[in-house]
């Protein structure tokens, strides 16, 4: 399970902030909803593609003693399904769906892979943006309404 937290807007700032600031603690488990504070369970490194650069960022893990599952804290510029940073991913998708030529740095196969993966993960991406509660992004309600 992934817990989103806003730290900074760039991976380099996040890396310095990760090692200098206090660790973020999670007060309840996302899996079993236990109210016991989760234990720090180490870190792992994750790759983030930020336009032309690739960064390896540390990600904090927490462990629930009741259900035995772990929860990771991702920075807000990451998405759990993609290595691409969120601003770069949104720019690529906007260009793709508006039929704007993308930069030559991306191969055609990579562009096709991103768009196909986007369409397969569309429900998860909508859920991600609803959790972020960004006032600039509004999704229509697709629920069944009675006449």
Describe the protein in words.
- It is a single chain.
- The protein has one domain (2-132).
- Strands 1-4-3-2 form a 4-stranded mixed β-sheet, covered by helices on one side.
- The chain has helices at 11-20, 86-97, 108-120, 122-132; strands at residues 2-5, 39-50, 53-63, 70-75.
- The protein is built from 4 helices and 4 strands.
- β3 (53-63) and β4 form a beta hairpin.
- With 147 residues, the chain is of the alpha+beta class.
- α2 (86-97) packs across α3 (108-120).
- 31% of the residues lie in helices and 22% in strands.
Beta-strand share of residues:
15-25%
What is the makeup of the main sheet?
4 strands, mixed
Instruction: Output the radius of gyration.
Output: 18 Å
What's the total count of β strands?
A: 4
Distance between the termini: 38 Å
Gross morphology is: globular
What is the helix content? 25-40%
Order of strands across the main sheet: 1-4-3-2
Order of helices and strands: EHEEEHHH
- What is the SS-derived class? alpha+beta
Task: Report mean pLDDT, rounded to a whole number.
Answer: 77
Low-confidence stretches: none
Oligomer: single chain
Number of individual domains:
1
Q: What is the helix tally?
A: 4
Secondary structure layout plus pairing:
Layout: E1 2-5, H1 11-20, E2 39-50, E3 53-63, E4 70-75, H2 86-97, H3 108-120, H4 122-132
Organism: Acetobacterium wieringae
Protein name: Transposase
Structural key phrases:
147 residues; alpha+beta; 4-stranded mixed β-sheet; 4 helices; 4 strands
